[in-house]
Structure formats: C-alpha cells, structure tokens
Design brief:
The complex is a heterodimer of chains A (134) and B (179).
Chain A lengths: L1 H30 L7 H9 L2 H6 L15 H26 L5 H31 L2
Chain B lengths: L8 H9 L2 H30 L18 H19 L2 H5 L7 H34 L5 H30 L10
Helix pairs in contact in B: 2-6, 3-5, 3-6, 5-6
Classes of the chains: A mainly alpha (134), B mainly alpha (179).
C-alpha cells in the first residue's frame, strides 16, 4: 500500500509538471507574438472532458452492469470528440487565415495536446485507484 | 428474430469487427467528423473574411466572398442530421410491438425528410461549387471556398452514417441496418 501511494504521488507530480508545461506553451504562443487568440485552445481543451463527466451519470442506473446504449452518454461522447477536434482545428484555421503565426499554431497545438493528455492520464489513473477499492 | 436474411456481407463483417467498444469508437469518430466538417467550412469563411487584395496590385479587391448562400447547404445538412438522429430507431423498424402502425409510418416519413435534407445539402453544395466558383473560372485560391463547402457536406453525411451504424450495431443480436 505504501509503495502504491508513493507511485501515486510520483504520478501526480509528473502529471502536474506536464500540465504546467502545456499551459506554459500555450501562454508563450500567445505572449511571444502578442496575439492572445491561441488562449482559446487552452479553454477548449479544459472544457473537453466536461460533457462526458456530465452525461456519464445520466442514462444507466447502478444495477446495469453492461453498457447498454443510452442516448445521453452517446451525446456526451459526441460533444467531447467535437470539442477535442475543435481544439486542434482552431489554431490551424487561424494560421491559414494569417491571423496567428505558424510558430504560435505549433506551440498552442503541442501545449493543448499536453494539457488534454494530462487530463486523460489523470482520469484513467484515478479510475484505476478507485477500482482497487472494489 | 428473423433478421438473418437482411445480412449482407460488408454489414456482417462490420458487425463482427464491432465489439462493445466499437460503439464508443464509432460515436467518437462521428463527433470528430462533425467538428472536422464544420471547421473545414469555417476555415473557408474566415479565409474569405480576411482575404486582402494582392500586394502588387492593391486596387483589385477579391472577386468573390463567402456569403449567406454558402452557409445554406451546411445548415440543411445539419438540420437533416438532427432529424435523422432524433428518431427512435426501434420505431422505424416497427417490429418491437409498439402496436401503432401510424407511428411507424410517421417515423419513416420524418426519417425520409431527414435524409432528403442531407442529400439536398450535398446537392446544394455541389451546385454552389459549380455555379458560383467553377463557371466563373476564378483562380484556384477562390475555388477552395467551393471545395470546402462540398467537403463539409460530405463529412457531415459520413458523420451521420457512422453515428447511425455504430448506434444500430451495438445491440448484440440485431445486426441489420435495414431501414
């Protein structure tokens, strides 16, 4: 148990560093060219897991073990995928129209991927630890 | 049930390849395609809004812009997708013992309207590409607006198809896509 919590603390520290680096990249991509539109990417990726989190409690009660198809859960997944693709597409579109520089586009995409990857990794690690209690 | 005669081979292989996770992947894929479609068109619209005169000859404005007409096919496809996905699929099949045959008839009518809206959006985008961009022999830079419109509607239709397939394959014993 002690080793497990130790590994958990290490994971949390590592993930928080990655998250900080991701936000640093996005903020640098805005500040270096003094154009703050790429900050929308950070907002998009932070909002991305929200629909799944909201809709995951709708639709299935505690007694169904199988994942029966339910509309609200599907809607949450659909919106999540939409928001994630939006986060990647927004800097590309802005670059295509010469609104932001290609360097800012690359930095904000990398930073956004780091932020979203951190959220995904954190939620999966957390879910595993929760399953250990069962 | 007696659905085995509806099984065609690509449908069957798709159903075999699809486990329970397949439904999830399909829905994520549909959402991604949906966003990709709309961003393709928004890219053209933003590009058009920020288009400037060529540097060597600043007197010439851009000959064409993305106007409201370009938005119409996408809106039609969007409405069609909404209508198609709001329909209860068991009711369309009409074999689950809902009893009311008029409800089945109405569901099929709405399904037809939805698919007609989506097909109309696709046809409209091709029409706009031809009439507004190709016929006037604009340079390649402006033809992109029309191509983006067509690819938006194709991707919206693909998204609806992926969503439909992944939602109807999931119930393990019913593999049919018969409408």
């Amino acid at each position: 148990l002690n080793m497990a919590t130790h590994a958990g603390i290490k994971t949390v520290i590592l993930l928080s560093f990655v998250l900080a680096v991701g936000f640093l990249m996005i903020i640098l991509s805005c500040a270096l060219w003094s154009n703050w539109l790429p900050l929308l990417v950070a907002l998009t990726f932070v909002l991305a897991p929200l629909p799944n989190a909201i809709f995951s409690h709708c639709g299935n009660d505690d007694f169904t073990t199988d994942y029966e198809g339910s509309g609200p859960i599907d809607l949450g997944r659909f919106i999540t995928a939409t928001v994630v693709v939006t986060g990647f597409a927004l800097p590309l579109v802005l670059t295509h129209s010469d609104i932001i520089r290609p360097g800012a586009c690359a930095m904000s995409i990398i930073g956004g991927a780091l932020v979203y990857g951190t959220i995904l990794a954190y939620s999966s690690v957390f879910k595993q630890e929760e399953a250990d209690y069962d | 049930s007696s659905n085995d005669d509806h099984l065609s081979s690509p449908c069957l292989s798709l159903a075999r390849a699809t486990t329970r996770g397949g439904r999830t992947i399909g829905i994520y894929l549909a959402g991604g395609l949906f966003a990709l479609a709309n961003w393709t068109f928004l890219d053209a619209a933003i590009l058009s809004a920020h288009a400037h005169a060529p540097y060597e000859d600043p007197q010439i404005p851009p000959p064409v812009h993305v106007g409201f007409v370009d938005w119409v096919p996408g809106i039609c496809s969007l409405l069609g997708m909404l209508v198609v996905n709001l329909i209860d699929k068991d009711r369309v099949r009409g074999e689950e013992g809902f009893g009311d045959s008029r409800a089945v008839w109405r569901a099929r009518l709405f399904l037809f309207i939805g698919f007609a809206l989506m097909a109309g959006g696709l046809a409209g985008s091709v029409t706009i590409l031809v009439l507004k961009y190709v016929m006037k022999e604009l340079p390649e830079q402006f033809l992109y607006y029309g191509y983006a419109n067509v690819s938006q509607n194709v991707a919206l239709m693909l998204s609806a198809v992926v969503l439909w397939i992944s939602q109807s394959v999931s119930s393990e014993y019913e593999y049919n896509l018969s409408i």
